[in-house]
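fyi for ur records
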Amino acid sequence: MLIGLISDTHIPDRAKVLPQNVLDAFSDVDMILHAGDLTSMSVIAELENIAPVMAVQGNMDRANGIDLPQARVIEAEGLRIGLIHGEVYPRADTQQLVYLAKELNADILVSGHSHQPKIEKTDGVLLINPGSPIVPRLADRTVMLLEINNREVDVEIIKVGAPVCSALDFDKFKSD
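which gave:
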């Protein structure tokens, strides 16, 4: 099973539509998981033209009146995938994410919120954050592909655009 992972799209706040590179990256997926901060249900409608979508509510979704579950668990190929936005502080705190995964009895936890891609196995849980294809934080614009075959897992980071600010630009910005 091939699953597209996406988070923090912030449409139409930060962009009008999903980049075509995202749609292309997901062209062969069986399912898409969105880890929150859609800010518009139009994102789900657009992604559902490719494959079924499961999404959870992010902190910015609540502010925009979008009513989605705060957590979901999806079973795929004998594994439990937890899906949350990940409003833990500090952002992307590994210990808190592992705790949330264990609460969901998840083998894999997909989260968002940090806008930074992450793949980390800790305490028997695979933690995945696909980053953001629209507003990354000191990272490239990314989504991910999660492939599961007979309980074997492969995760691929897909860059869908240039970084918002390169290190060179950031150094120049700091000195201005």
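The mean pLDDT is 91. thats all i got for now
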